[in-house]
Specification:
- The chain is of the alpha/beta class and about 280 residues long.
- The chain has one domain: TIM Barrel.
- Helix content is about 35%, strand content about 20%.
- The strands form 2 sheets. Strands 1, 2, 3, 4, 5, 6, 7 and 8 form an 8-stranded mixed sheet that branches. A two-stranded antiparallel sheet has the order 9-10.
- Helix 5 runs parallel beside helix 6.
- The termini are close together.
- The chain binds zinc ion (ZN).
- The site of zinc ion (ZN) has 5 residues, from loops.
Length: about 280
């Protein structure tokens, strides 16, 4: 039994989350013995035009009121014992959002955060330089160092602009769909930039997400979480590690959490973080 919280999950309210529902993912987390799950549906105000070539552009900002009403309904079911007595006592269903950082969305992002209450806000970059890296053109004419470096620079610049968030999501997302043999973002390749990012998180009490979806196989490539980043994070005084599966299907909830909990323990981390009502909670692993 563990008390993991999965801090990053998509539901039917995300434009790409149609393969699961809040209720199904709650059941999956309860079945794994978790302490809770947070639904962080997509909020990307800016969607690059080039995406239209590959799929029709849809609104990528979820309906906050509808999502929160559904979370309240499912929380009620949990409390009534619909998912078992143990879950009724301890399991939490949390309200989150994944804010897509982009220069043109700065004001809109601030507005949606001010107009609603969330348990937890993830800030992340899905789009940059008017492209969607999932579809390739972002990497054209760039070597791996430029492609990964520009992503990290964008992430740092836009996080500083937003300020109002709890967890930095998938800092190495850009490696997932990259065409280079270089599979991972490693500390030794961007020491100054990664230090700046880690220091910003630490000084501002924000969490560093380990996005377990990033470390699975994509075609012939399997990105790795660079141990030197964890070691440096600890050296600088960081201790808010958050495990997020980035699930878009119920069977992905909590994927490889046992492995990554053991992995971070090896470096001396003893607790994992999540946020409730925008306040940090730490759970011993
Ligand atoms: Zn994301």
């Amino acid at each position: 039994m563990n008390m993991f919280f999965d801090t990053h999950n998509h539901s039917q309210f995300s434009f790409d989350g149609g393969a699961t529902t809040v209720e199904q993912s709650v059941k999956a987390a309860v079945d794994k013995g978790f302490g809770g799950i947070c639904f962080t549906d997509h909020c990307d105000y800016f969607v690059p035009k080039m995406k239209e070539e590959f799929e029709p552009i849809v609104c990528e900002v979820f309906d906050v009121k509808a999502q929160q009403a559904e979370i309240d309904r499912v929380s009620g079911l949990v409390a009534e014992g619909a998912f078992g007595r143990a879950a009724a006592k301890k399991f939490k269903v949390l309200k989150g959002i994944e804010v897509g950082l982009y220069e043109d969305s700065r004001e809109l992002n601030k507005n949606i955060l001010a107009a609603n209450s969330f348990d937890q806000v993830i800030a992340s970059v899905h789009y940059l330089e008017d492209t969607d890296p999932y579809f390739g053109p972002y990497y054209k004419g760039k070597n791996w160092k430029e492609a990964y470096g520009r992503y990290l620079e964008t992430l740092l610049r836009e996080m500083r602009k937003l300020e109002d968030f709890d967890i930095m999501g998938h800092f190495d997302y850009i490696v997932r769909y990259a065409p280079y043999p270089k599979e991972s973002i490693q500390y030794r390749d961007f020491p100054g930039l990664i230090d700046e990012i880690l220091k910003y998180l630490i000084e501002n009490g924000k969490g560093l997400e380990i996005n377990t979806k990033t470390y699975r196989q994509y075609g012939l490539r399997t990105p790795q979480l660079d141990r030197d980043i964890l070691i440096r994070y600890m050296e600088l005084g960081g201790d808010i590690l958050c495990l997020g599966s980035d699930s878009h299907k119920a069977d992905q909830v909590g994927a490889r959490f046992d492995y990554f909990a053991q992995y971070v323990k090896m470096f001396g981390f003893r607790r994992l973080g999540h946020f409730e009502n925008r306040r940090l909670k730490m759970v011993t692993i």
